[in-house]
Amino acid sequence: MCVRVGGKLSKLVEYNCGVRQGCPESPLLFDIYINDLLHGLKGVEIPGTEVMISGLLFADDAVVLAESPAELQIAQEKISALSQKCGIMGMNSCNGMLFTIIGKPIEQVTN
Known about the structure:
- This protein is an alpha+beta fold.
- It has three helices and eight strands.
- The chain has a two-stranded antiparallel ribbon with strand order 1-2. It has a two-stranded antiparallel sheet with strand order 3-4.
- The N and C termini lie far apart (42 Å).
């Protein structure tokens, strides 16, 4: 990748895995991979409609919506699996995430 500044291109920077904090390509690469994040999650129904919404995405933030702790656990497992498959988030990052229901942390279980 090169960056154009003032009409001039920077030196070529190659990526083997991950990108640096603040890298100009970070948002684009994140958007490419994040599109699959919410697919296949049940989500919640918007009151007064038949529309289901599984989450909200903005920049590099995501909010996952679920109607029960069990559905939220399934969503967390799917997100973790996608993250590992695509290499978009290290497992250390996932372990630091806080999942809540109505503002109260939920217990993370392994089985």
